[in-house]
């Protein structure tokens, strides 16, 4: 069986004719003469072994076979357009895709501001954002399923590469009309005997809080454990207890009208970003982290000034 010898020029002429429906317009589209287009199409039909156009009373009409072929041609052109766009993004240091896994505290609201800032600079970037626990994030990033992750510290660095350690102060969130609501700030001594809602045992934030309370010999009635910071905030708002939370959760809680008080004692919530040891998207990760750092600086300044508290 003789092999077809199709040329790029023939496919271009065929596509132009399908798009314009006229030899004259196709010629103008390709910047050639009308006879040239007619000759190229005739050669293409001869090479294919079937007719692409019917010529009736000076007008052309695409055959059913032409429509079938055209759908394949368009798929190829769409693929080529994707390659061109990718090349343009690489040249302009923009676009691309990034899969990010974040701990629940960041997913509450802060990360949306980071993404908004990033998209103001690069609207072509494709992002996929998912929330997981820190231990899960380490495994997902190490396996390559996610390009970037944000987790609480400490982190096992045998599987991933870590960025700088960042931190926010902790705050106390209270139910509406709580008897401590009149206080300007809350000490952990104020929480003696209070019902406390916390993260589960083993969680980094739980370990820090338990260590602080134990060191000061403070007892409390713990009634509910919840994995996600957003769930903890909802339980507090429902009047089921108090909680000590990170700055991200406290800020989101205050925005919804919740009662937030600075914590007298120093209790930092520390976290970092991680990538796999074989990360191939260093440019995109760097752009994201630059936006993160800019937004985080503004956010932390606001936390330290307590200006977000109602």
UniProtKB/TrEMBL annotation:
Coiled coil spans: none
Chain ranges of the HTH lysR-type domain: 6-63
GO biological process, one term: positive regulation of gene expression
Keyword DNA-binding in record: yes
Top-level lineage group: Bacteria
Keywords in alphabetical order: DNA-binding, Membrane, Transcription, Transcription regulation, Transmembrane, Transmembrane helix
An annotated Gene Ontology molecular function: DNA-binding transcription factor activity
Annotated transmembrane regions: 98-115
Xref: Pfam families: HTH_1 (PF00126), LysR_substrate (PF03466)
Signal peptide: none
InterPro entries, alphabetized: LysR_HTH_N (IPR000847), LysR_subst-bd (IPR005119), WH-like_DNA-bd_sf (IPR036388), WH_DNA-bd_sf (IPR036390)
SUPFAM superfamilies referenced in this protein's UniProt entry, alphabetically: Periplasmic binding protein-like II, Winged helix' DNA-binding domain
Family: Belongs to the LysR transcriptional regulatory family.
Name of protein: Transcriptional regulator, LysR family
